[in-house]
Each structure stands twice: as C-alpha cells, then as structure tokens.
Amino acid sequence: MIHVLIIGNGNVASHLATAFEKNPNIALKQISSRALDSVPMSDVAIIAVSDDAISEVANKLVNYQGLLVHTSGSVDVKQIKAKRNGVFYPLQSFTKGKKVDFTQVPFCLEASVDSDLLLLEKLAQSLGAKAYRINSLQRKKIHLAAVFANNFTNHMYSIANDICDQEKIPFEILHPLIAETANKVQGISPKEAQTGPAIRRDQQTIEKHISQLTKEQQRLYLLITKSIQSH
What InterPro entries would the database entry show (predicted)? Predict the structure, then answer.
C-alpha cells in the first residue's frame, strides 16, 4: 500500500486523484494548496499546482518527512527544499472533463535518492504508466519539445478551424488528416513525413494561400514556410 497525498485541485491534481482512487493499492488523501497548516503524512506528497505556485507551496513544507514531489515539466527539482524531493511529471495535456488513459501517459521521474526513484516508479506503474528516469535539464527540454508538438500544433488546428468556419465547412473534415499525420510520425521521422507546398517549394500555391489570409495569418504562414524550407 502506497500512501499518497495530492496537494492542489486543478486539472492535473483532479486527474491524478481520479486515477489513484480506482487503485486498491493506493491510500489517497487530497488537500487544497491553501490548507497547509496541518498536512497529513504520506509516503509521497504530490504538489500539483501551477508552476508559479510550486515554490510557495514547497517552502511551507520544508520539514516534510515524506517524499515531496511536483508535477511540472519546466520547474527545477531544487525548488523543493525538503530533504526528500523529486519530480513526478506526467507528459500529457490535461483538459477539464476529458478523461485521460494513464496507460498511455509517460511519466518523467526525478529524485536524489534511488529508493525514492523506485517509489515513484512503483507509483507510476500503479497507474499502468511507463516511467522514465529524467533529470531536470532533460525534462525542461522535453517540456519545450512538447510545447511545439502539442500547444503550437493545437493553435494551428485553431487557425484551421477559423478558416473552415469562414466557409461553413465542418472542421471534422480535417480529422482523418490530423490523425494520419500524428500516426505517421510514430513510424518515420517528422522530417521524412513532411509534405505540402512549402517542402515542394510550390510558390504558385503558396501565393494563392497567402492571398486568402489575414495579415497576421500571412506572417505566420510565411514564417513557418521559411522554417520548413530551411530545416
């Protein structure tokens, strides 16, 4: 039995709590990050709050005797001053109301003591997840890569959705294309998978596209086109 305390009630905290509650080998407690006057002891306390709040919460728990970890991709493990510190970072996008299959979520783990790393691995395995031992520098690079692979990509979907809306075209018509692109890069490199007018240097098509876009969209289109051609 692993005793787990989740500190926070945002998206990541809620998804982790829901998953842990289903596991009979996890004894779970959850408290608000504002209720730190009397913090229950646990094997692992998970600070699942916004990046800006991690240091503030951790500073109130410097004397915590259990393993104290955060869930951030970009915050250094040293932000936690407790004797036993670490990172339990689920590399996934969490949206309120959208269920997450943790068997498909890689966890990036960090701890200064091997026994604590083993504990975090056991905790990730309790969710059916795959765990990776990743240091803070590696994790920050992974988080940066994830912003390009996920956040920026989703913004491209948003622009594509706007373009479809202009002509009352259902965005779902692009779903198979989106799925195929995501599936393709699991088998070949993204560079090999690149298609479209930019990589073909099809200037005639590029100019036709530019003429249909707003000024802001034109700048973005040309910037990405240049990046594709020079990559």
Answer: 6-PGluconate_DH-like_C_sf, DUF2520, NAD(P)-bd_dom_sf, TM1727-like_C_sf
Whether 99 has a pLDDT exceeding 90, the answer reads: no
User: Which residues make Cβ contacts (< 8 Å) with residue 76, sequence separation at least 6?
Assistant: 136, 140
Pairing verdict, β 2-7 and 44-47: parallel
Under 8 Å between Cβ of 109 and 134: yes
Break the chain into its structural domains and give their ranges: 2-134, 140-230
The region, left, alpha or beta by phi > 0 then psi within -120 to 50, assigned to residue 48 is: beta
Mean pLDDT, rounded, for 48-52: 92
Homologous superfamily in CATH for domain 140-230: ProC-like, C-terminal domain (1.10.1040.20)
User: Alpha-carbon torsion 132, 133, 135, 138, what sign?
Assistant: negative
**CATH numeric code, 2-134:** 3.40.50.720
Give the count of beta carbons closer than 10 Å to the beta carbon of residue 175: 10
Band of residue 196 on the pLDDT scale cut at 50, 70, 90: very high
